[in-house]
Amino acid sequence: MASQSGPLVIVGGAEDKTGECRILRRFVELGGGKHARVLVITVATKLPVEVGAEYIDVFQRIGVEDVRTFDVSHRDAANAASAIQMIEQATCIYFTGGDQLRITKLLGGTRVDAALHEAHHRGVVLGGTSAGASMMSSTMIVDGQAETNPRPSIVDMAPGMEFLDGCVIDQHFAQRGRLGRLLSAVAQYPHHLGLGIDEDTAVIVRDHVLQVIGRGAVSIVDAGKVSYSNLDRVRRDESLALCGVQLHMLPEGCGFLLRDRKPIPDFEQWLHRKELSS
Amino acid sequence: MASQSGPLVIVGGAEDKTGECRILRRFVELGGGKHARVLVITVATKLPVEVGAEYIDVFQRIGVEDVRTFDVSHRDAANAASAIQMIEQATCIYFTGGDQLRITKLLGGTRVDAALHEAHHRGVVLGGTSAGASMMSSTMIVDGQAETNPRPSIVDMAPGMEFLDGCVIDQHFAQRGRLGRLLSAVAQYPHHLGLGIDEDTAVIVRDHVLQVIGRGAVSIVDAGKVSYSNLDRVRRDESLALCGVQLHMLPEGCGFLLRDRKPIPDFEQWLHRKELSS
């Protein structure tokens, strides 16, 4: 069965841009390697020129000839025919970090938004780091307190760009001590798996299968079988009780079946078996 | 059945000493209230005079008349008859923060060590905060990197004072992003439950039953039923994979059965039922 949509490359922020650039290389490989046509969307950042130039530099350094950047500062520009054309021509689209609300505010519901979803369904690779990672899900974490125990009030959520359903994504995860806020998010709707992605670490998602690459780990927080939660009784600033959360720590080489909520300890072996059986 | 040993009050550091002092009050209540004879052991800190004076002040302020401090700077002093006498006279013994290795190095195997265990078995309340919390277990976390994904090399362990078996304790837990290091500790011996205690939060342990009090939460990390771990294959600096860790977030009002590895969502209700059935 052919893949219905292109791969998502969801990066936990601070990906290596000066050394081997393994995550960005993998992103480009998925979309044509040196023949890739990379579009860097800098809408999340208030420094689009600087951030755009940095990504042009790194993508060119790893061998991509065709790298462009795209930015808008008002929604009208996200309805322009020229913008749609840039998206239609790209094989890899990458969202930089910044503020995830800028992405949804400036692009949400525009023609660019529709063109991005069409591109994704056509098989185009979509990537994003930090804010560009958060916005991938249907409900995204907008902001929240780190280094605290879970309480409903410590996490702010908003609609995301809906490239990946059934998940809530957090980034800079171990580095900023964000377990409490991710637990607060999934506690509120345990249908959502919590994906906590470390810095310089990414998940590649295809057909509801997730593969981990990079230097850190991905924490998967599954509150689906929680045996007790006090969410219905606590005030927003009170401490959450959560009993029986499943936690999976997945470094590179591991994967996860998002629909079955099952870890894949050895991704290569799993892929090999799957290919043999198909 | 009478309790075999006195309660342990294990505090995640930074307990309130200027406001309501709820944790320190509870500690004192367990050992006689205003008639308690409190001994503060400052062996962990290099500032025993300052830290000792601070605790004398706070315990006196909450109504304890008899507060003493005890410190040693060499092991000989921990074999002195006067030291044993101080321990024998106390109804509440509290270990301050500092460096947990100072506690085991200076007290381990001395007559004071034996007297502390005798006191504990006699029913005396033993408390400890931060370093004084870490040392409570048989194997203690000595040091380790925070805000990182789990790897064997990020946690250093050593023998603890053995007041509580079957557990490894970490403190300042959410505040310092220490999930990675606690997972690294329990991954190495999943018989140990990981207790991650937040600041101004404590567990009271009696007869293998744990009760949570304070402002934050206690994270209980149970790797007993891990379905996959790569611990046998990773180098010490490589990322650990751990699938199927059970995580319980327990704020005040909750408890935990350490032997059965089961959370108690409502401690008061549980206690009431237990009393009815006994």
From TrEMBL, chains A, B:
InterPro entries (UniProt xref): Class_I_gatase-like, Peptidase_S51, Peptidase_S51_cyanophycinase
UniProt GO molecular function: peptidyl-dipeptidase activity; serine-type peptidase activity
GO biological process, one term: proteolysis
Gene3D superfamilies: 3.40.50.880
Enzyme Commission number, as recorded: 3.4.15.6
UniProt keyword terms in alphabetical order: Hydrolase, Protease, Serine protease
Keyword Protease listed: yes
Residue numbers annotated as active site: 130 (charge relay system), 172 (charge relay system), 199 (charge relay system)
Catalytic activity: [L-4-(L-arginin-2-N-yl)aspartate](n) + H2O = [L-4-(L-arginin-2-N-yl)aspartate](n-1) + L-4-(L-arginin-2-N-yl)aspartate
Function: Exopeptidase that catalyzes the hydrolytic cleavage of multi-L-arginyl-poly-L-aspartic acid (cyanophycin; a water-insoluble reserve polymer) into aspartate-arginine dipeptides.
Assigned protein family: Belongs to the peptidase S51 family.
Protein name: Cyanophycinase
